[in-house]
Amino acid sequence: MSGWTVRPSVESDWRAYRDLRLEMLVDTPIAFTETLDRARLHPDEYWQGRAANRSPASRLFGAVAEDGSWLGTMGGYQTTGMRDPLLVGVYVTPAFRGARSGVTDALLDAVIEWARPRGERLLLEVHEQNDRAIRYYQRRGFHLTGLRVPYPLDRTADELQMALPFES
Q1: Whole-angstrom Cα distance, residue 154 to residue 163?
Q2: pTM to 2 decimal places
Q3: Cα separation of 99 and 91, whole Å?
């Protein structure tokens, strides 16, 4: 499908990224560790900083339509002391979900390319009730590691760790 491209975000993307972030928190709140109410409180400078991709320890990618709107986003994150990078902030707007559009796969491919030289595998944490996401990750080669961590917004639920090993 044409009409969009996947690329690292730049500071001038901040409004489109903010709009998509607010959409994602409405659409799938269990997939993120931030609430919509909290996200709405962030000043413009916060969104500008997130979109700017200034840190070598993280990379935010957007699937950007020709009109500049964002159709999806994924990011990679790795701080000092982390052995393997982490996939974060995964979201694709409903009209562009599924294999036919290719948006989700293209975003994940971009994060994998960024992450590959940074570790032996790409990790992620997914809410235990997010079956659609778990199935997608499994189709892409991720497997459950057995590690469960409490979901920060509801300690009665867990996030499941999944890993995609990189070929040597």
Answers
A1: 23
A2: 0.94
A3: 14
Q: Tokens 């497997």 map to which residue?
A: 143
pLDDT recorded at residue 167: 83
Residues 141, 166: Cα–Cα separation, whole Å: 10
Structure tokens, 30: 């269990």
Q: How far apart are CA 117 and CA 10, in angstroms?
A: 22
Residue type, 110: A
Cβ(132)–Cβ(99) below 8 Å: no
Distance CA 72, CA 106 (A): 10
DSSP symbol at 167: P
Q: What CATH number has the domain spanning 4-120?
A: 3.40.630.30
Contact call for residues 32 and 24 (beta carbons, < 8 A): yes
168: which residues sit within 8 A by CB, 6+ positions away? Answer: none
Which helix (H) or strand (E) covers residue 125, if one does? strand 121-127
